[in-house]
Amino acid sequence: MAEDLIVSSELTKEEKYKTLLPQLKALVDGETDAIANLANIAAALKTTFNFWWVGFYLVKNNELVLGPFQGPVACTRIAKGKGVCGSSWQKKEVIIVPDVDHFPGHIACSSASKSEIVLPRLNSQNEVELVLDVDSEFLNHFDETDQNYLLKIIQLIPTLN
Question: Can you give the pTM of this predicted structure?
Fold first, then answer.
């Protein structure tokens, strides 16, 4: 796989996802190291969409632990049910937050973050093994298009266990 992704900035959001998806598939295909794959996916999403923050939290010892990410420094550990990431983990569902200031218990790792989407990745035992967290410095940034394509992207990641 080439080191450069080719996604035109002139495309719509959905077109960008459609162009990025096969490139990510090629990037992770055959690579068995989870950290390498997570790092490349985070970098690709940050570069393609210029999100404020993109990263993964891995479930370790019954808490979410910061994994590969792109953006400013972040919270290192999150308890189950706490904040958007911990709530997504607990509920095993995608959470889209149009305005983080209106999410009860939001954990403000960065005051610049205004909206957020968090997607859990389930393993073969139907347990959350990681969450993808994407933040924007704009309100109402995320929608069903992001949800649909980000779910496809996290399914490209080989299982961690």
Answer: 0.92
